[in-house]
From TrEMBL:
Belongs to the PstS family. Part of the ABC transporter complex PstSACB involved in phosphate import. This is Substrate-binding domain-containing protein. It holds the Pfam family PBP_like_2. Keywords: Lipoprotein, Palmitate, Phosphate transport, Signal, Transport. PANTHER family: PERIPLASMIC PHOSPHATE BINDING COMPONENT OF PHOSPHATE ABC TRANSPORTER, PHOSPHATE-BINDING PROTEIN PSTS. Residues 1-19 form the signal peptide. The complex is composed of two ATP-binding proteins (PstB), two transmembrane proteins (PstC and PstA) and a solute-binding protein (PstS). It is a lipid-anchor. Residues 49-174, 195-308 form the PBP domain. Residues 23-37 have a biased composition (Low complexity). The keyword Translocase does not apply.
Length: 311
């Protein structure tokens, strides 16, 4: 009988101990969660895991892009071979066909690097300093940020009255205020807009880098001359120039200087603004600055990982 009572007492004590243990860990599991679910990494934990030994994801624009043409020229990524300039961008580069796709690609890959129009820059990506200078309109004006290029429109002779009126607005005080308000560098010595009284339709085609500010110019223009309809077709600089040559559009857009062959085909370029090219990385990338030589080495494929690039 005594043995039976003792066994019952031991069993009771063990049950109480197990209950106490369970209450001290109430609502937790081995992961440390307080609600019974597995613990997940915070964004801060993820950021701290950035690994500079990982391969760089090089992101470039398509052939024909004015931004790509200006970028490879300004960073020395093109070389002269048998008297012709050859783009030496690595064949491993991911190719995007617009500014918006470039930005979203870099924003989604923490090891990516790309380049965009400065006027298109937003907080979805991070612009790095180049040779110690930040990519800003002010630094382009004072010459400390040297990665800049012109925004051109191109037209043939015998421009329609409607197209001429829109061009006059772009080059006016009012038009250049739109340029400046959208983070581009405006022209000096401009005068107030005076309409020629035109009506009709104007087709503008070309560069995806120029088209965002052209959309703003269109909006402001049609507020003062609703008799002219402006249609903007976005592609790339080379396509825009060819469309202007062929008469498919009235005004072509190019985010680069015009080629001699395009001028010889009858196009006259007009600079409407200056723009910087921002070299951009993912927001989780701790890199804040690169030299021109480092950028060149990355885009030609001479270095493959971030630690190699930053040596």
């Amino acid at each position: 009988m005594k043995k039976k009572v003792a066994a019952l007492l031991i069993t009771g004590i063990m049950a109480v101990a197990m209950t106490a243990c369970g209450s001290s860990n109430s609502g937790t599991d081995n992961s440390g969660s307080t609600d019974g679910t597995a613990k997940t990494e915070s964004s801060a934990d993820t950021d701290s895991d950035w690994d500079n030994t990982r391969d760089i994801t090089v992101v470039s624009r398509e052939d024909g892009s004015g931004t790509r043409g200006a970028f490879v020229e300004l960073f020395g990524i093109e070389e002269e071979v048998n008297g012709e300039k050859v783009d030496m961008t690595t064949e491993e580069a991911n190719i995007t066909n617009s500014t918006s796709v470039m930005m979203s690609t870099v924003a989604q890959d923490e090891y990516a690097i790309g380049y965009i129009s400065l006027g298109s820059l937003d907080d979805s990506v991070k612009a790095v300093k180049i040779d110690g200078s930040e990519a800003t309109a002010e630094n382009i004006k004072n010459g400390s940020y040297k990665i800049s290029r012109p925004f051109n429109i191109a037209t043939k002779e015998d421009l329609s009255d409607a197209a001429q009126d829109f061009e006059d607005f772009i080059l006016s005080t009012e038009g250049q205020k739109v340029v400046e308000d959208n983070k581009y560098i405006p022209l000096d010595d401009v005068s107030d807009y005076k309409s020629n009284g035109a009506s009709g339709k104007v087709v503008v085609a070309g560069s995806s880098s120029v088209s965002p500010v052209m959309e703003k110019l269109k909006e402001a223009y049609q507020a003062v001359n609703s008799d002219v309809e402006v249609e903007i077709q976005t592609s790339d600089s080379t396509t825009g120039m060819q469309n202007a040559i062929d008469g498919v559009c009235d005004i072509g857009m190019a985010s680069r200087e015009l080629k001699d062959s395009e001028k010889e085909a009858g196009l006259t370029p007009t600079v409407i603004a200056m723009d910087g090219i921002a070299v951009v990385v993912n927001n989780d990338n701790p890199t804040d600055e690169l030299s021109s030589d480092q950028v060149k080495s990355i885009f030609t494929g001479d270095v493959l990982t971030w630690d190699e690039a930053l040596q």
